[in-house]
Design brief:
alpha/beta, five-stranded parallel sheet, 5 strands
């Protein structure tokens, strides 16, 4: 089965990337894999404090994931998988794509503001030629209706 990989973060444009991935998966018989990356430098504290912070981060990710997962199951009939990694975002995305041959498309949300599309889109498009899969960049300002028409 071909899976659409989408990155879960706190950005506004993440919502449209999630919607797009779920709708495309539903319309093509594919799956969705949701990747959340915890920055490794977030836990450079004493061992006990770092472990507590790491666990709190995982709990926040699971709660955030469940919101998207419920919508995907209820509205699109897609049951997404969650992968949590620690490290640098681009490195972890590329590693997961190379490790999982079922991932067929990387879906990223792009910010429409003056600051540019966002750091993930900027960094990953520089590496696009060496990735083994295509990248789909979904504008953050796209309406639900337009997304439905496209997918």
């Amino acid at each position: 089965m071909r899976k659409f990989l989408v990155v879960l973060d706190d950005s506004r444009e993440c919502l449209n990337a999630m919607r797009f991935a779920a709708m495309r998966a539903a319309n093509t018989g594919g799956g969705v894999e949701i990747l959340s990356i915890i920055p490794a430098d977030e836990f450079n504290h004493w061992i006990g404090v770092g472990e507590v912070m790491r666990e709190e981060a995982r709990e926040r990710i699971h709660a955030h994931f469940e919101v998207f997962a419920k919508w995907m199951r209820d509205k699109q009939g897609v049951d997404p998988e969650l992968v949590i990694r620690e490290g640098e975002a681009v490195t972890e995305i590329i590693a997961l794509v190379q490790e999982d041959p079922e991932i067929g498309v990387l879906v990223l949300g792009a910010n429409s503001g003056k600051k540019g599309p966002g750091p993930l889109v900027t960094q990953l498009t520089k590496n696009a030629g060496s990735l083994p899969i295509p990248i789909t960049i979904v504008p953050g300002e796209l309406s639900k209706e337009r997304l439905e028409a496209i997918t």
